[in-house]
Structures are given as C-alpha cells and as structure tokens.
Predict the structure.
Amino acid sequence: MFAKTTLAVAALATLLVSQTAVTPARAGDPGAALAAGAAGLVGGMILGGALADGNRPPPPDEEVIVRRRPARVYEEEEVVEPRRCWREEWRDRWGDIHTRRVCR
C-alpha cells in the first residue's frame, strides 16, 4: 500500500512540475532555463525513487538469539565405605599360632 501511495504522489508531483515548466524559456532569462532543468531533475528523481522503492524485497525478520544457561552436571561420587580391619589368630594342626590382618 505504501508503494502505491508513493508512486501516486510521485506521478502527481511530476505532472505539477511539468505544468509549471511548460512555459518556454526566454533567451534573455538564464534563470528560467535553470529552473526548468532543476524541475525536470527533481521530478525524475522523485519518479525514479518511487519506482525503485516498489522492487525492494521486504525486510528480513529480526534474528532472535536465545542464550541458555548450561545444564548442571552432577557427577556421581563413588561411595566408599570405611574398611574395618582386625587381626585373626588361629592354630594349625601342629599347634603353631598364626596371625593375619583381615580388612573388609
């Protein structure tokens, strides 16, 4: 809708400028020729801008960057129960006493 309105305003401005510039320039008046040239230049710029604006692609959607917090990582620790140690004594069949350390 904006492009159509801009094109219509540009066409109207070009027609109005061309109606005022229809009067022929006099040989003794250098300002009239300059005004006619400026009016044509301005009208051409308005019309060219309106035509170029209609071919412009729509602006891209804005990029949304989502930053997430890092996931918490829980490391499972190996449960080590304290070892209990004790001494065991026993006699063999010849009557000798033996001791050993047992840990579980």
The mean pLDDT is 78. The longest helix spans residues 30-54. The longest strand covers residues 85-91. The chain is about 40% helix and 15% strand.
